[in-house]
């Protein structure tokens, strides 16, 4: 009985420390908050930018919802209708795709900088974990959204992605070996990627994921405001600036500039222009898969190792990476920021190399 | 006669007086070359009056000058209907901002005792003139709409005729009285510039935009302590105003390019009948292919045999795609001995659809991750990502009347008579189970 009390007590203290109710007021969370100024200060802007792109995603996504139709016979046509006939439709759709890529890029950058700045230190463990989960959700957004235009590359890449899930079964104990298959069929809804898959992905992309995202984002932002910005560097910061109005104003100014860039990009460079037409043609269940099926650039860091290395190794490394990410606040509790920076640089190096040169490396290894 | 005086003599006189008077005043009474700021005496109301007034009037005058200096560019700009609409409404909004600011300034000048002490008769006269001019301008904008468009064909040529010393009043003599008043008042302004505080318009304080804030303070300890706080507040306000102007500029730019498109986004496209019918035809086509797909599914659930093709249609080097019982793609070829080969086209690696062209080694390629499959055995090449062979299906041959001629069981044995003259013209089927006997 005593230990029960003890555990409860520890638990409640743990939560009170992380979500101090007495600090939940405007004065503490906004007026008093200060942002340290040092050589890593730019890292404080990455989260805000991710949020900015999320807002763009929500707005442009709502726009697209007006015309998109999630059925196998209408999906591709409705997307084409948006880009060809609807006023400003091409711009909105381009913005949605560009901003999706940007959001994922900045979410990854935000994770890396937060890691290097040791922003997961007590009492910010929940901020970190919520952040990692948000990143996974963002990737899922990318994966589900990719299918919706129902073109060759979308459907085939989704097939490949889902089939990869099934391959996990071979490495599980006998009684679990069927689970990935069941999981895949659940997501897929039928034997092959078809109408049921489209419906499920659509529901996830526009309702389910946004709801979960909002919930986690609430926790994330609440704890950021509660605990303030982390120190970011090992030495004591010499100067600080007020979060409101100075930091937030700079943040908004940056948003304005980024919006201008995004707008011009979306206006001038259609995202489709990076893919040859056969990949963008409506999906044809009866024909051969066209050459050049690959996922979006933000999955390259996972996709090319899958192509090059044995599956079990990639599986092992991925699971390890996910575990490390989730338990970072405890694993790296005592690590200095200098070491964390080094780890970050190595990780970023890997991500950049795999994303930019993944295809060349693949050809080098395979041929 | 009166027109010549007002629209030819007055402008020349006004410009001459303005130029020489101003030069004279700057040379003779340098210290009076100022707006005679009263910010020291009262600054709170001033901000509410001076800011909207100056922001509004500067932009409006700028637009007037642009239309005057670059009539061709201006005309091509406003020939776009939405831009004309934006310019007109922005002008009107700025005009109201001016009016608001001016009213605040007038009230301040009349009611504040400190300001009264430094107010001259000329100041009040100028205020009155400005009010009259702004009301005139707003009246024109409201009553004689689209001034941005019509003025470029009437008032601009008139002004240019004055500039090239060949005055032509025919452009303005028939103008409405409101417009005439607006023009005459403009000349009156030029006329009084050298004699009033209006002269400060020649002191363009451009460097105010970027220089650090300066503040006069008294040299005593309490004020010095307050100083830093005031500077901070001043800085914040400066940033805020800069940001506000930036956002306003950004939004107006955005509105020029995108806002009308965004509204039309929700409005929906208005397609021509031709486009509409093309779209409908396309939709119908897609629906048909989906319904065919559904038919195939139904057929595969209910029927024992699925027609692949007639044997004559099959080729040795190019497979024919069809959908098997699992609703996955499959390929049918003709073997060298004239019998069909039927093999699944769903790659055993990650489920892509295998290509249908047979290469010299009798293999087909999966383009996703480069696996070659032998069509006779289904085996992938040794270093392919795919490890398991493509399933080889059994088939049956039936003649037109539905008589079973020959078959290949799923185990691979071939039964029945496969002489070429017998099976010629037969149809190839795949079969749900091997039960039937030949």
Describe the fold and architecture.
The complex is a heterodimer of chains A (367) and B (438). Chain A has 367 residues and is mainly α. Chain A is 69% helix and 2% strand. Chain A is built from 15 helices and two strands. The radius of gyration of chain A is 22 Å and the shape is globular. Chain B is an alpha+beta fold. In chain B, a hairpin with a 5-residue loop joins strand 7 and strand 8. The model of chain B has no long low-confidence stretch (mean pLDDT 85). Classes of the chains: A mainly alpha (367), B alpha+beta (438).
What labels would you give this structure?
heterodimer, A: 367 residues, mainly alpha, 2 strands, 2% strand, globular, B: 438 residues, 3-stranded antiparallel β-sheet
Quick overview:
The complex is a heterodimer of chains A (about 375) and B (about 450). With about 375 residues, chain A is mainly α. Chain A has 15 helices and 2 strands.
Task: Note the topology.
The complex is a heterodimer of chains A (367) and B (438).
Chain A: H1 2-18, H2 26-31, E1 34-37, H3 44-65, H4 75-84, H5 89-116, H6 125-147, H7 152-167, H8 179-188, H9 195-227, E2 239-242, H10 243-268, H11 277-280, H12 300-308, H13 311-326, H14 328-331, H15 337-366
Antiparallel strand pairs in A: 1-2
Chain B: H1 2-28, H2 44-69, H3 71-78, H4 81-111, H5 113-117, H6 121-143, H7 147-163, H8 177-192, H9 221-267, H10 273-302, E1 305-310, E2 320-323, E3 329-334, E4 340-344, E5 363-366, E6 371-374, E7 395-398, E8 404-408, E9 414-416, H11 420-423, E10 427-431
Antiparallel strand pairs in B: 1-10, 2-3, 3-4, 5-6, 7-8, 7-10, 8-9
């Amino acid at each position: 009985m005593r230990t029960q009390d003890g555990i409860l007590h520890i638990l409640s203290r743990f939560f009170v420390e992380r979500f101090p109710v007495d600090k939940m007021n405007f004065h503490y969370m906004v007026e008093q908050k200060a942002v340290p100024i040092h050589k890593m200060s730019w890292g404080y802007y990455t989260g805000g930018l991710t949020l900015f792109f999320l807002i763009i995603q929500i707005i442009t996504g709502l726009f697209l919802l007006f015309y998109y139709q999630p059925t196998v016979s209408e999906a591709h046509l409705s997307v084409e209708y948006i880009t060809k006939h609807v006023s400003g439709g091409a711009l909105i759709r381009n913005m949605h795709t560009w901003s999706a890529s940007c959001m994922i890029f900045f979410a990854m950058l935000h994770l890396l900088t937060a890691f290097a700045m040791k922003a997961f230190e007590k009492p910010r463990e929940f901020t970190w974990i919520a952040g990692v989960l948000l990143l996974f959700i963002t990737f899922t957004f990318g994966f589900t959204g990719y299918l919706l235009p129902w073109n060759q590359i979308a459907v085939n890449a989704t097939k490949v992605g889902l089939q990869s899930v099934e391959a996990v079964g071979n490495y599980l104990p006998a009684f679990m070996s069927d689970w990935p298959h069941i999981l895949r069929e659940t997501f897929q809804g039928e034997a092959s990627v078809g109408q049921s898959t489209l419906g499920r992905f659509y529901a996830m992309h526009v309702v389910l994921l946004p709801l979960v995202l909002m919930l986690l984002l609430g926790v994330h932002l609440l704890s950021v405001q509660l605990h303030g910005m982390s120190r970011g560097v090992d030495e004591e910061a010499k100067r600080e600036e007020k979060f409101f109005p100075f930091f937030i104003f700079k943040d908004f100014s940056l948003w304005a500039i980024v919006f201008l860039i995004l707008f011009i990009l979306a206006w001038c460079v259609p995202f489709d222009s990076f893919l040859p037409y056969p990949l963008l043609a409506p999906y044809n269940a009866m024909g051969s898969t066209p050459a050049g099926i690959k996922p979006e650039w933000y999955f390259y860091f996972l996709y090319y190792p899958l192509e090059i290395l044995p599956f079990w190794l990639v599986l092992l490394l991925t699971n390890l990476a996910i575990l490390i990410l989730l338990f970072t606040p405890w694993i790296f509790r005592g690590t200095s920021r200098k070491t964390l920076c080094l780890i970050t640089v190595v990780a970023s190096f890997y991500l950049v190399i795999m994303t930019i040169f993944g295809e060349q490396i693949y050809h080098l290894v395979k041929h | 006669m009166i027109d010549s005086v007002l629209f030819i003599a007055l402008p020349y006189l006004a410009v001459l007086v303005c130029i020489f008077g101003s030069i004279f005043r700057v040379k003779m009474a340098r210290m009076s070359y100022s707006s005679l700021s009263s910010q020291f005496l009262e600054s709170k109301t001033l901000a509410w009056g001076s800011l909207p007034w100056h922001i509004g009037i500067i932009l409006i005058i700028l637009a007037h000058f642009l239309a005057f200096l670059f009539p061709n560019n201006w005309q091509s700009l406003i020939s776009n209907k939405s831009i004309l609409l934006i310019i007109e409404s922005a002008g009107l909004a700025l005009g109201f901002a001016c009016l608001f600011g001016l009213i605040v300034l007038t009230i301040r000048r009349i009611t504040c005792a400190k300001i009264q002490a430094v107010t001259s008769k000329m100041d009040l006269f100028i205020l009155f003139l400005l009010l009259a001019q702004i009301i005139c301008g707003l009246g024109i904008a409201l009553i004689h709409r689209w001034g941005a468009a019509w003025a470029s064909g009437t008032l601009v040529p008139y002004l240019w005729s004055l500039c090239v010393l060949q005055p032509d009043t025919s452009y303005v003599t028939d103008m409405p009285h409101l417009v005439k008043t607006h023009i005459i008042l403009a000349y009156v302004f030029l006329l009084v510039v050298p004699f009033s505080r209006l002269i400060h318009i020649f002191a363009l304080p451009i460097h105010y935009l970027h220089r650090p804030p300066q503040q006069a303070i008294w040299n005593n300890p309490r004020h010095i302590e307050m100083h830093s706080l005031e500077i901070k507040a001043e800085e914040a306000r400066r940033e805020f105003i800069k940001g506000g102007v930036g956002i306003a500029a950004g939004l107006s730019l955005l509105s020029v390019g995108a806002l009308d498109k965004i509204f039309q986004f929700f409005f929906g496209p208005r397609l021509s009948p031709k486009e509409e019918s093309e779209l409908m035809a396309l939709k119908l086509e897609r629906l048909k292919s989906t319904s065919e797909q559904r038919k195939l599914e139904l057929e595969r659930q209910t029927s024992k045999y699925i027609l692949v093709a007639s044997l004559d249609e099959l080729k040795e080097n190019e497979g024919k795609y069809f959908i098997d019982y699992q609703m996955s793609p499959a390929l049918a070829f003709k073997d060298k001995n004239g019998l069909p080969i039927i093999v699944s086209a769903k790659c055993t690696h990650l489920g892509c659809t295998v290509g249908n062209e047979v290469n010299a080694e009798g293999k087909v390629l999966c383009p996703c991750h480069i696996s070659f499959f032998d069509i006779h055995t289904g085996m992938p090449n040794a270093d392919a990502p795919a490890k398991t062979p493509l399933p080889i299906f059994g088939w049956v041959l039936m003649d037109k009347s539905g008589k079973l001629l020959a078959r290949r069981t799923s185990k691979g044995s071939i039964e029945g008579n496969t002489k070429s003259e017998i099976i010629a013209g037969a149809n190839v089927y795949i079969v749900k189970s091997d039960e039937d006997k030949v």
